[in-house]
Amino acid sequence: MDLASYSASSSIVSLKLLVNKKAQKVLFAEANKEFVDFLFNILSLPVGTVINLLTEHPMCKGRMSYILSYVTGDGAAKLAGEGGGFVKGVVTYMVMDDLEVKPMSTISSITMFNMFNVKKIGDLEEKVVSLGMKEGLMLLKASFECKNVLTTVFLA
């Protein structure tokens, strides 16, 4: 079984990116619990599993189904229904380009504008992207290769 046969049935998670149009760089993403749990799930996979997923080596059907079910939301949804998961559901999160996660607030957003030296609000645009298993694997791979993960995956 390969990943392509599973990706069509995977859950899709939506993510809002704040993009600096001039620099073609993601400043940060506005994310909910579903995305942050998705992100933390893929980043907490065992190294052997990551190697198999990123090199697309065949795995037994049962193991792959379990991983995809858990990472794409079915397993995470069960945890969330029981009050589980990695983060709280009522909070909006700011996910930085390097995948640092923190609670989002107006003050933290303004601080980010100053940190990134944003002079004109017109240089910024909101971009909504969908994230499935394919993009999740791209995030995982990019997290090993660079520090501007969101930019690499969604603006490349």
Per-chain topology:
Blueprint: H1 3-7, E1 13-20, E2 25-31, H2 33-43, H3 47-55, H4 61-71, H5 74-81, E3 93-96, E4 101-103, H6 106-115, E5 124-131, H7 133-145, H8 149-155
Antiparallel strand pairs: 1-2, 1-5, 2-3, 3-4
Helix pairs in contact: 2-7, 4-5, 7-8
Account of the 3D structure:
It is a single chain. The protein has 156 residues and is of the alpha+beta class. The protein has one domain (3-155). The chain has helices spanning 3-7, 33-43, 47-55, 61-71, 74-81, 106-115, 133-145, 149-155; strands at 13-20, 25-31, 93-96, 101-103, 124-131. Strands 4-3-2-1-5 form a five-stranded antiparallel beta sheet, with helices on both faces. A hairpin with a 4-residue loop joins β1 (13-20) and β2 (25-31). The longest helix is centred in the last third of the chain and has 13 residues, at 133-145.
Concise structural overview:
The protein has 156 residues and is of the alpha+beta class. The chain has 8 helices and 5 strands; from the N terminus they run αββααααββαβαα. The protein has one domain.
Which terms would index this structure?
disordered N terminus; alpha+beta; 156 residues; 5-stranded antiparallel β-sheet
- How much is the average pLDDT? 77
How many β-strand stretches? 5
The rough form would be described as: globular
Largest beta-sheet characterization: 5 strands, antiparallel
Strand content: 15-25%
